[in-house]
Amino acid sequence: MEILAPAGSKDSLKAALLGGADAIYLSGKTFGARRFAPNFSDSELRAAIVAAHDRGAKVYVTVNTLIKQSELPTVYSYLDLLSSIEADAVIVQDRGLMRMIKENFPLAIHASTQMGVHSLEDAIWARNAGAERVILARELNLDEIERITKGANIGTEVFIHGALCYCFSGQCLFSSMLGGRSGNRGMCAQPCRKLYSLAGKTSFMLSTADLFCVDILPQLLRIGVSSIKIEGRLRSPTYVYLATKGYRAAVERAERGETELMTPRERELLEVAFNRGFSPGYLGGDQVMQRRYADSRGLPLGTARSRGREVWLPTTDLRDGDGITFYRGSYKVGGFEVKNPRQDGLGIVVSSPFRLEMGEYEVYKTKDREFPAIEKAISQVSLPNARAERIPRPFKLPEVSRGPRKALLSGHLSSIPSLRSALPFLDRVYFEMSDEEDEAREMCEAAGKEFVLALPRITPKIPKVDAPAVLVHSPGQALRYRDRRTYGSYSLNLFNSLTVPPLDQYAVSVELSRKDLADLTAHDLRALEVPVFGRIELMVTRDPSLEEGMLKDGRGKCFPVVRDSYGWAHILNSADLFLLDFLDELDRMGIDSYGLDLRGRPPELCAMVAKAFRQRDLGMKNRIKRRCGAITAGHYFRGVR
After folding, report:
1. 221 part of a folded domain
2. Which of 284, 292, 391, 403 is most enclosed, with most CB atoms within 10 A?
3. DSSP one-letter code for 138
4. Number of domains in the chain
5. Within the chain, which residues score under 50 in pLDDT?
């Protein structure tokens, strides 16, 4: 089983090599999902690959952001560089890149966790599209991982340690919609680590604990997982070294059949290096949250008592050179390095370089006496000098002429009363799977309107349906129902004209601006739908503990939380997308369909919205705004960087 370590900097690369990584994943200066890490220049990428190969390790380069149409020539040149410097694989999110790579470069493709592979059919689709490995969604449990690993005939990679996103990977629009910093473009502002209120309680409601899955290793070995992945391209070289070395040793012990896979000291060092509290994630159940605090606090030691300049600590394990930090609630008071600790009963007394108010504090160990020696050893690992240059290679897609089209109006609904009120104004209906779907289908057929059954958003096991047309949210769903008419939702993240799989119609990503849409439609003849109304889904999560209701942030914005019949919770935007003003402009781009998301809305509002968009009646805008509370043009003007 491969140990795959992160490297967000040259020092972290050295740490991963020193720790015994089989492979390292890293990014260039562009198109990586961690744009705030130092990352690697073209020449540094070449040097990293040479250094890793000299030690028998592989390098996988992340090209795991969504790619705009205008960026395709640049990413083509970048992939050509990666091929020339012999990257062992590229990790990709954008499905269009899979097609580009397969047709032009001898590069191995690993489907990023951002691609959202979470079903057997998703993995089979990725294999057929050219991937050698799928990095599975972190929401999967062991049974689901086993089903894919044993049934898809493709390598599987599983996250084993580090940060756990609250939202299903590749589907988070929270940071994007609130501030324009898209997680799908490597710019996540981590709104999940903020305070929220819900049902009268305030906490770090969306903040997960860190993955720590060492005890799951025997099961992953039995299942046949190809690679275990350590998260952490934004973390310190010391963390990278300790995690890599710790899991290297743990895998070797598991392969020998030992029961203690990680010593207490190895675990302690990992906790000190970085943790928000540890959890086995969905591999070990569904208790993944740590809502008391959202930052890394190190190893909890207990309650300290201040005596002014002297502090009593509830441990006897601290030594000279260890570092400690004090908290009161969520407030960080400060910390210092331990010197000359003195035993006092069941604890020790240390001198503080600053005066602490008398009283009790939570105390954490945040530095270990071994860290300086580790940092020195990392600094002594040498990297070769290397040079890499991009050779310009033309990449141009022919422009097409879509011409104005008679756009249809689609409505996504979830109840019979709302369907009845909106149906006269719609051409197509996407209806949620429920015990009302047969009645909805009969109503649509009687009215001469197209009926499309909307599959669930996330489907580790894709349900069997008999509808002639389906709305799909993943390539696996499209593969399963390739004999039907298939319509893609915006969760497929269509950013460019290369994006696959083939469908009868695609909804474009809600992160595209008017310029991005113009670029796309100038090169794409496929049937396209633009979402023009509704509460965009900001997050979808498997967390069973999030209650339905209104999630309120620190600015007073309220985000509806709804739970589907499969147990997934959906967090919706605080304002409705509203693009009625821009339909004429979109018509000139040749858009085929406009989508209204009317799920969960009262019948009167559904009728009002559908009528306004059917008649293009801007005079209804203020009435709709008053009923909705707030409306937004989303990314239509600003887009994402």
Report:
1. yes
2. 284
3. T
4. 3
5. none
CB-CB contact of 437 with 431 (8 Å): yes
Contact 603, 421 (CB under 8 A): yes
| Backbone φ/ψ region at 257: left (φ over 0), alpha (ψ -120 to 50), beta | left
Contact 467, 428 (CB under 8 A): no
> pLDDT tens digit string along 291-323?
999 999 999 999 999 988 899 999 999 999 999
- By CB atoms closer than 10 A (0-12, 13-18, 19+), residue 248 is middle
pLDDT at 213: 98
pLDDT at 68: 98
Query: What's residue 610's pLDDT?
Result: 99
Q: How far is CA 595 from CA 61, 83, 430, 487, 506, in A?
A: 37, 40, 10, 12, 11
Contact 509, 67 (CB under 8 A): no
Nearest residue to 415 via CA among 607, 567, 167: 607
**Tokens matching residue 592:** 């085929």
How far the first Cα of the chain sits from its last, in Å, is 37
75 falls within a domain? yes
Read off the amino acid at residue 389: E
Residue 441 identity (one-letter amino acid): R
Q: How far is CA 466 from CA 71, 181, 438, 488, in A?
A: 40, 40, 11, 18
Residue 573 exposure: Cα atoms within 13 Å on the Cβ side: 27
Alpha-carbon gap, residue 523 to 515, rounded angstroms = 13
Return the C-alpha torsion angle 622, 626, 629, 632, nearest 10.
Answer: -10
**Full domain range(s) for residue 463:** 408-536+573-632
Peptide bond into 501 cis (omega under 30): yes
| CATH code for position 328 | 2.40.30
Burial of 194 (0-12, 13-18, 19+ CB in 10 A): middle
Buried b (16+ CB within 10 A) or exposed e, 211-223: bbbbebbbbbeeb
Instruction: Give how far Cα 625 sits from Cα of 315, 412, 525, 605, 632, Å.
Output: 59, 19, 34, 11, 10
- Rounded Cα gap, residues 178 and 268, in angstroms: 37
* 428 and 469 both lie in a single domain: yes
Whether 306 and 273 share a structural domain = no
Residue 357 and residue 470 in one domain: no
Say if residue 113 is in the same domain as residue 244. Answer: yes
Phi and psi at 322, nearest 5°, equal -75, 150
Each residue of 150-167: b (16+ CB within 10 Å) or e? eebebbbbbbbbbbbbbb
Co-location of 234 and 353 in the same domain: no
Contact between residue 205 and residue 550 where contact means Cβ atoms under 8 Å apart: no
Amino acid present at 258: E
Contact 33, 114 (CB under 8 A): yes
